[in-house]
C-alpha cells in the first residue's frame, strides 16, 4: 500500500530519498483513513507487521470509521476482531462510532421503501450476524476498563527497575567499630 502511494508521490516529493524519510506509526494512521475496504485494511495491517509496528487504538478507530461510513458489516467485524486479538484499549470515539452505526442500522431497517426491499433483506441478514457478534464482543472486551481515562503518554512509559544503590544491602550494621575496635551491640529494630 505504501509503495503504491509512493509511486504517486514521487513527482511531488523528489527529496524523499535524499532526506531518507521512513514510514512510522503516524504514516500508517494517515493511510488508515484511506482504507475504504476490508482488503485494503488487511494489507495495511500486514505491512505494519512487516515493518515491526503494532496497530494502536487510533489506527483501529480510523479503520472502524471508514467501515461504518461505507456500511460494510464484514469490515466492521474484522476491525472488532482485530481489536480483540491485539488486546487494544479502545477509546470513547471507537465506542461512539459503534453506537452511531447501530443507530444508523436501526434507521435503515425501520425505513419501509419498496424499492430497497431486496437490499434490505440481505442487509437485515448481515445485521443479525453483526448484532450477535457485537454483543459477544462487548462481553469479551473489557469495556469499562478500556474506557477509563488515562494519560496519553502512559502507553509509552515502562516501569523502571529498582536501582541497587537505593536498596539497603546491609541488613545489619557492623558489630565492630573500625577505629577503636570495640564491640558494638547488635542492631534491634
Automatic annotation (TrEMBL):
PROSITE patterns: PROKAR_LIPOPROTEIN. It comes from Eumeta variegata. This is Pentatricopeptide repeat-containing protein 1, mitochondrial.
Amino acid at each position: 500500500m505504501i509503495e503504491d502511494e509512493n509511486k504517486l508521490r514521487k513527482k511531488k516529493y523528489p527529496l524523499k530519498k535524499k532526506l531518507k524519510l521512513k514510514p512510522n506509526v503516524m504514516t500508517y494512521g494517515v493511510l488508515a483513513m484511506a482504507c475504504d475496504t476490508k482488503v485494503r485494511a488487511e494489507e495495511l495491517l500486514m505491512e505494519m507487521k512487516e515493518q515491526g509496528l503494532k496497530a494502536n487504538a487510533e489506527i483501529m478507530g480510523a479503520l472502524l470509521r471508514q467501515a461504518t461510513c461505507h456500511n460494510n458489516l464484514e469490515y466492521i467485524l474484522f476491525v472488532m476482531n482485530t481489536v480483540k486479538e491485539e488486546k487494544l484499549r479502545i477509546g470513547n470515539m471507537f465506542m461512539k462510532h459503534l453506537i452511531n452505526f447501530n443507530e444508523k442500522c436501526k434507521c435503515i431497517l425501520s425505513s419501509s421503501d419498496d424499492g430497497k426491499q431486496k437490499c434490505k433483506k440481505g442487509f437485515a441478514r448481515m445485521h443479525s450476524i453483526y448484532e450477535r457478534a457485537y454483543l459477544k464482543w462487548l462481553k469479551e472486551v473489557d469495556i469499562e476498563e478500556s474506557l477509563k481515562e488515562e494519560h496519553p503518554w502512559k502507553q509509552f512509559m515502562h516501569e523502571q527497575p529498582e536501582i541497587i544503590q537505593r536498596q539497603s544491602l546491609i541488613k545489619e550494621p557492623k558489630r565492630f567499630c573500625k577505629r577503636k575496635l570495640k564491640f558494638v551491640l547488635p542492631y534491634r529494630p
